[in-house]
Amino acid sequence: MQHSRDLAKGVEKLLRQLAILDVRIRRSHDVLYAAFVQQQCRYDVMFALELDAETYYTVAHQLLVLLTNLLPRSEAKKLRREPLYKTIAVIRNHLVRHAYGGKPDNDPRGGFVLIGRIGIMLKGGNVHPSGERRDPGFYPNREALLAVLKKYRIEAFAPLPPQLSVSSHPAT
């Protein structure tokens, strides 16, 4: 019983961290879009946005893994088969820079593109050999993540922070 309470506290912590990063990413997107319109470059915001996005996907991945540990086995199995679960895992494992270069495809340079209503895409979405983008973009991923969290009743373990209920698409 104590173990389940500890895991639920972990869910609450990760949800709060996700909410903080979500707000920062959306604000950075707005600042960069405004700077682009005015033909300005904001490296400080660009670097912060990339770091926040990488951290967002790391936290989202941790949250999904933790949720699989809290759900009944059959529900956890369904969650792991969700396309969003796989997308977040691919982004976290292949597109996020890792502190140590132990992975053969680890690229310390990182990089991203920012597309209006799609948002930040790490490493330009990193096109898979099949031609499919590995990262559909922050805003589609955000919507899909929230839908999956609701589908698997995340609020049974911790309340969803109000910042995550805000409409995600920028006015671009």
Blueprint of the fold:
Blueprint: H1 2-37, H2 43-70, H3 73-81, H4 83-95, E1 112-115, E2 119-122, H5 138-151
Antiparallel strand pairs: 1-2
Summarize this, please?
The protein has one domain (2-153). It has five helices and two strands. The protein has helices at residues 2-37, 43-70, 73-81, 83-95, 138-151; strands at 112-115, 119-122.
Word description of this protein:
By secondary structure, the chain is mainly alpha-helical. It has one domain (2-153). The chain contains 5 helices and 2 strands. It has helices at 2-37, 43-70, 73-81, 83-95, 138-151, and strands spanning 112-115, 119-122. Strands 1-2 form a two-stranded antiparallel sheet. Strand 1 (112-115) and strand 2 (119-122) form a beta hairpin. Helix 4 (83-95) packs across helix 5. The longest helix has 36 residues, at 2-37. The radius of gyration is 16 Å and the shape is globular. The mean pLDDT is 86.
List keywords for this structure.
2 strands, 172 residues, globular, 5% strand, mainly alpha, two-stranded antiparallel ribbon
Rg, rounded, reads 16 Å
**H-E string:** HHHHEEH
**Count, helices:** 5
Which structural category fits the helices and strands?
mainly alpha
Strand order of the largest sheet: 1-2
